[in-house]
Amino acid sequence: MTTVVEIASAVCLIAGSSLSLIAAIGLLRFPDLLSRMHAGTKPQVLGLLLILVGVGLRLRDWTDLGMLLAVAMFQLLTAPVSAHMIGRAAYRHDAVRADTLVVDELTPTLDDVGKG
């Protein structure tokens, strides 16, 4: 049983590290702000969660698991909100290329706010 847990831990740690590396490469290589935000939030958060699962499988202590759960919850709550706020601020300051947007739901909302 211990060997299976050790292997699962190693797989989670390697997969999480790989996803975090892919996110870092995406931050450097993607051309615009929205693409970089996507690379900075989605694979990075999943990578961190996999790393936390791998560490949790290795440690197996209730105190450590509680701390890992707190870190995971904080990351799940803050990363999407911060990415949303950065994207919205960039959009308002014309840092987002309009030709790359497939659907633009924010312009009508901002126009309504400006009229009222």
Helix and strand topology:
Blueprint: H1 2-29, H2 33-59, H3 62-92, H4 106-115
Structure description:
The protein is mostly helical. It has one domain (2-115): Helix Hairpins (Orthogonal Bundle). It contains four helices and no strands. It has helices at residues 2-29, 33-59, 62-92, 106-115. Helix 1 packs antiparallel against helix 2 and helix 2 (33-59) runs antiparallel to helix 3 (62-92). The longest helix is centred in the middle third of the chain and has 31 residues, at 62-92. The radius of gyration is 19 Å and the shape is elongated. The model has no long low-confidence stretch (mean pLDDT 88).
Distance between the termini: 64 Å
Share of helical residues: over 70%
Write the H/E string, N to C. Answer: HHHH
Pairing-aware structural class of the strands and helices?
A: mainly alpha
Report the CATH topology name.
Helix Hairpins
| Count of beta strands | 0
Uncertain stretches: none
C-alpha geometry: elongated
